[in-house]
From TrEMBL:
InterPro entries the record matches: EF-Ts_dimer_sf, Transl_elong_EFTs/EF1B, Transl_elong_EFTs/EF1B_dimer, Transl_elong_Ts_CS, UBA-like_sf
Its biological purpose: Associates with the EF-Tu.GDP complex and induces the exchange of GDP to GTP. It remains bound to the aminoacyl-tRNA.EF-Tu.GTP complex up to the GTP hydrolysis stage on the ribosome.
One GO MF term: translation elongation factor activity
Protein name (database record): Elongation factor Ts
Membrane recorded as keyword: no
Family membership: Belongs to the EF-Ts family.
Keyword Protein biosynthesis: yes
Pfam family, one: EF_TS
Domain Translation elongation factor EFTs/EF1B dimerisation stretches: 72-285
Length: 304
């Protein structure tokens, strides 16, 4: 398979590896992007595992909590440019969409779009009106909800809506104390972006894949075969501490793990606390968008 310049650029953006290393990796893996990322990691030339996919789409996320504090939702609505993402009317629409999700619990985005609002129009019809008025394409991309029977769901919005998080805490403890803890945990999730809540949640395929990559990495570093296994297990455990929320160092006090922070609060309240669910949305994650320079973007907005 021919390796194109755009493929090399994409791999370089995802891994921060050198251009020639990216080209070689793609040649060695017959143009398979994921295998090329693993190849660079094995050679110690990439930090890809710790880098999120390049984020390029614009828009907003938001998080809102129901009046009783037991249900929380996060939504993402995309726009073409950052200009619209900062538009007050767009902000209000995103908030309205989140309220619709809380109040109507739609099954999916299509069901959400079909909900009829007080205006008599559906969410989709309202969105179409906004597109015509603002003059730019917009789309409701996704939403997620968390609910508890006892306890609290807490939300946190970072960067004016670039990242939104909800954390559901199941507990019979004092609601105010749970909300304080939940806010700290939501900020932790926003900052550290864990893939899992605990090590029990980790996909065994993920562990097997990481072990293979780490073994190849250690052997390529010239480490003796007889110590590679122990070394790899140590590195794997270190990696799991980074991707599992409960094992992460607490951002507000690096001497404590998140698990310990929760245990301390539970001890003070005399009630068990369990993280029942976590949702983290970051604007545009996983979406690639063609890049435009600033002048072109301004010209587009001015209709030139």
């Amino acid at each position: 398979m021919e390796v194109t310049a755009s493929m090399v650029k994409e791999l370089r953006d995802k891994t921060n590896a050198g251009m020639m290393d990216c080209k070689k990796a793609l040649k060695e893996t017959d143009g398979d992007m994921e295998k090329a990322i693993d190849y660079l990691r094995e050679k110690g030339l990439s930090q890809a595992a710790k880098k999120a996919d390049r984020i390029a789409a614009e828009g907003l996320t938001t998080a809102i909590i129901s009046a009783d504090g037991k249900t929380g939702v996060v939504v993402e609505v995309n726009s073409e440019t950052d200009f619209v993402a900062k538009n007050e009317e767009f902000h209000n629409f995103v908030q309205d969409v989140a309220k619709v999700v809380v109040e109507n619990t739609p099954a999916d985005v299509e069901a959400l779009k079909a909900v009829v609002l007080e205006s008599g129009k559906t969410v989709q019809e309202t969105l179409t009106d906004k597109i015509a008025k603002i003059g730019e394409n917009m789309s409701i991309r996704r939403f997620a909800a968390e609910k508890v029977n006892n306890g609290a769901v807490v939300g946190y919005i970072h960067g004016g809506g670039k990242i939104s998080v909800i954390v559901a805490l199941e507990s019979e403890g004092d609601k105010e104390a749970l909300e304080v803890l939940g806010k700290d945990l939501a900020m932790q999730v926003a900052a550290m972006n864990p893939k899992y809540i605990s090590t029990d949640d980790v996909d065994q395929e993920f562990i097997a894949h990481e072990r293979e990559v780490l073994i190849a990495q250690a052997l390529n570093e010239g480490k003796p075969q007889n110590i590679v296994e122990k070394m790899v297990e140590g590195r794997l455990q270190k990696e799991l501490k980074e991707v599992c929320l409960l094992e992460q160092a607490f951002v507000k006090d690096g001497d404590l793990t998140v698990k310990k922070v929760i245990a301390n609060t539970a001890a003070k309240l005399g009630k068990d606390i369990k993280i029942a669910g976590v949702q983290r949305f970051e604007v545009g994650e996983g979406i690639e968008k063609k890049s435009e320079n600033f002048a072109d973007e301004v010209a587009k907005q001015m209709g030139k």
